[in-house]
Amino acid sequence: MSAQVRPHYREAMSDLAPAASPTVVAAASARRGESRLKVVARTAFPFLVVALAWEVTAHLGIFPRKLFPPLEEVAAALVRLTADGVLPHHVLDTLVRLLAGFALAAVAGVAIGFAMGRSRRAEDVFLPLVSIGAPIPGLAYAPLFLLWFGLGNMTAVLLVAFVSAFPIIFNTWTGVKAVKDIWVRSAQAMGADNRRLLHHVILPGALPYVLTGLRLGLAQAWRILVGVEMLAAVSWGLGAIGLALEKLVFQRLEQYTVVRWGMMS
Question: pTM of the predicted model, to two decimals?
Answer without folding.
Answer: 0.66
